[in-house]
Structure formats: C-alpha cells, structure tokens
What does this fold into?
Amino acid sequence: MKLYHSIKDVSAMLNEPESTLRYWEDEFPETLNPSRKDKVRGVVKLSLKERKEAKTSHKTLGVRYFSDDDVNDARLIQYLLRDCHLTIDGARERLKINLNGAEKQAKLVCRLKMIKEELKAWSKAMDEAAKISQVS
It folds into this structure.
C-alpha cells in the first residue's frame, strides 16, 4: 500500500480531472491540503499561511502528495458536490456545520456503490454460468 498518491492516481481513483482536484484544493483549503515536496524539508504539510504566501510570491509549491486521509477528504468533497448536488458555498457550509455526519454519509454511499458494483459482477458471472450450462 502506498503512503502517498500522486494527483494523477487520485484523479483516476475519483474519476475527476486533475484540474478539478487542484480547484477543490483552492476552494476547500481547510479540508483538502495534500503534502508538498520541499527541496529542503522533504515531504511536508504546508500551513494555509505558507500556501498563500507561496502563491502570492509565485514560488513553486512542489509536487502534491495525497495521503489516504487526503484522498478521503477529496471523496467527501466529491460526494457533497456530485451526489448531494451542493454548490461550493453549500459544501463549505455543510463541512463547517457537520463534518462528522458528512463523512459518515460519504463513506456509506461509497461503500454502497462498491457493493452495487460487486453485485453487478456476480450477476454477470451467474448469467454467463447459466449460458454455459444450457449449452452443455
């Protein structure tokens, strides 16, 4: 298991463009804050202040490294925006008011989607098995 995921990996996991993840990072800085590779300090989590200073001075912030928690935060934002159809402001408000409840709901929906995919796969396999037994 990887300790860190690249933005490309996270993009593939969530089926969202990399640009969307970068946008979410700007719009939800308190929630989504992947680590950055610093030439001197190595992989570090930058504070909100450090991120703002680096952007205004046009310093490079370094390559993003998403931990499993960062991926879960991105999934939570995705759930609020895509599944709950909230606006950016609505999602921000929801995160401020009830972060724990939103996280639990997002995890539940994610798990249900996985179960649905497993059931579809089992159904397809059973259909294929039935076809094979009819031929024999």
In short: The chain has a mean pLDDT of 82. Residues 7-135 form one domain.
